[in-house]
Amino acid sequence: MSAGGRSVKRREAKKEAVQTAATLIEMAVATAPSDMDLAKAQASLARRIMLKFNVRYDWSLRRFFCHGCKGLLYPGINARVRLGPGRFLLVTCGECGRVNRKKITKHA
């Protein structure tokens, strides 16, 4: 098989991995209020898929993970969200205590 054929298959596999991970994260967020253990397992599986296929999270997925313990963040259940000094959104993980900062920008 030619090298070009493998890269096409790999590219398709990466696309499918991103879609699968996004679906798992959506399901984890939907089930988090009722069953946090299942939601954590789904988020962990999504993270392992993304790591296996060497794909980066886009912002819509990345915001659901703690940068410290890599666990699922769900505001109100295991995360606290506050406005910080200046223009920062502070998300504190309830598992490890890590404060994740996100700069708030002004849109025109």
Describe the protein:
- This protein is α+β, with helices and mostly antiparallel strands.
- It has one domain: Single alpha-helices involved in coiled-coils or other helix-helix interfaces.
- The chain has 3 helices and 3 strands.
- The protein has helices at residues 3-31, 36-52, 59-62; strands at 79-83, 88-93, 99-103.
- A 3-stranded antiparallel β-sheet has the order 1-2-3, with no helix packed on it.
- Strand 1 (79-83) and strand 2 (88-93) form a beta hairpin.
- The model has no long low-confidence stretch (mean pLDDT 88).
Précis, in short:
With 108 residues, the chain is α+β, with helices and mostly antiparallel strands. The chain has helices at 3-31, 36-52, 59-62, and strands spanning 79-83, 88-93, 99-103.
Key words describing this protein structure:
single chain, 108 residues, Single alpha-helices involved in coiled-coils or other helix-helix interfaces, 3-stranded antiparallel β-sheet, 15% strand, globular
Q: Which spans of ≥5 residues are poorly predicted at pLDDT below 50?
A: none
Order of helices and strands: HHHEEE
Note the beta-strand portion.
5-15%
Q: Mind summarizing the main beta sheet?
A: 3 strands, antiparallel
Task: Furnish the topology, listing elements before pairings.
Layout: H1 3-31, H2 36-52, H3 59-62, E1 79-83, E2 88-93, E3 99-103
Antiparallel strand pairs: 1-2, 2-3
Helix pairs in contact: 1-2
